[in-house]
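Query structure, 334 tokens:
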């Protein structure tokens, strides 16, 4: 199976991405020599944050402060990065960038930027010693804009792959995807996802796998449902996984409501990644509520829409991705 000519990362023609939520910026920095990178979501005016981790192999920073029982109400940025635990250093660069702009939690000695972060494992792609650090985070923060989010092989999705549950050598390319829904009353719910799953990616509109572990000849996608039901054991990418996401809304939420929204958002993972939330995944979803729309939120509606945009963003990520050596993309399958 030959790879098609590489294409530039896809950029939306209209803003149906995370930056449709007013007050948020997104920036990527990609280390193309491996590839890997990081993605920064800036909330310079502050946003109420939440998080829910469902995978059993997470790598995170400052998630405890998002617990509704803890003090800090708002965060200033979220960082998603490749590079496994090494990639958590990307958040240091974002902290530096925000401090230079005097953005953060006020203290007697100055501001302390609040920057939770999470990482995915992509060290098996290329030279493992190349990984995102503080410089990567700083560059991504500087690059952050309100433009439609660039998707595909960028930032935290640069080295992302999918379909490693059975055989790592039959995996395919993952990446960054983003989606948004705007309602008639002005409420916006949006997501950005770095898709790096052990399982296959399914389009819930058709019920068909569109990327993931390939058959022995490499020409089509294996049916993981049938394989698992037939007794196959998933011994492929032991720790080479984790899908990360940020769900954002302009609604006004409390920390407890933001946490609940993160929990409800995981339904989007379950719809589009089979199987998801495994022992070898570190699947996590952060939430950001900017509060530019006042009024009592309908959390049931927000949760349903959040799952939708998560699912849409996952599908967009693999369709926007370009193949790299050893990892063809969805667009490469004939």
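Result returned for the query:
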């Amino acid at each position: 199976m030959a790879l098609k000519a590489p294409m530039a990362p896809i950029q939306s023609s209209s803003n149906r991405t995370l930056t449709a939520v007013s007050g948020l910026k997104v920036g990527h920095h990609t280390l193309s020599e491996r590839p890997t990178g990081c993605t920064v979501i800036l909330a310079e005016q502050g946003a109420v944050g939440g998080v829910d981790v469902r995978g059993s192999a997470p790598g995170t920073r400052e998630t405890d402060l998002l617990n509704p029982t803890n003090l800090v109400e708002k965060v200033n940025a979220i960082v998603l990065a490749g590079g496994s635990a090494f990639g958590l250093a990307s958040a240091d660069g974002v902290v530096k960038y925000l401090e230079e702009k005097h953005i953060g939690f006020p203290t007697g000695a100055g501001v302390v930027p609040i920057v939770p972060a999470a990482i995915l494992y992509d060290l098996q792609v290329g030279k493992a010693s190349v990984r995102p650090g503080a410089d990567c985070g700083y560059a991504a923060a500087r690059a952050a804009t309100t433009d439609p989010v660039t998707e595909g092989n960028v930032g935290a999705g640069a080295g992302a792959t999918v379909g490693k549950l059975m055989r790592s050598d039959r995996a395919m390319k993952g990446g960054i995807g983003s989606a948004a829904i705007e309602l008639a009353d002005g409420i916006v719910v949006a997501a950005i996802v770095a898709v790096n799953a052990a399982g296959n990616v399914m389009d819930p509109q058709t019920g068909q796998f569109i990327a993931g572990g390939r058959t022995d000849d490499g020409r089509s996608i294996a049916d993981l449902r049938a394989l698992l039901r037939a007794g196959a054991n998933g011994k492929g990418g032991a720790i080479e996984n984790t899908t990360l996401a940020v769900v954002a809304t302009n609604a006004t939420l409390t920390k407890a409501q933001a946490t609940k929204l993160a929990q409800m958002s995981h339904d989007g993972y379950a719809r589009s990644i089979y199987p998801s939330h495994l022992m070898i995944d570190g699947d996590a979803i952060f939430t950001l509520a900017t509060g530019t729309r006042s009024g009592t939120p309908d959390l049931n509606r927000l949760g349903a829409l959040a799952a939708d945009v998560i699912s849409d963003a996952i599908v967009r990520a693999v369709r926007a991705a370009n193949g790299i050596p050893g990892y063809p993309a969805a667009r490469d399958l004939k």
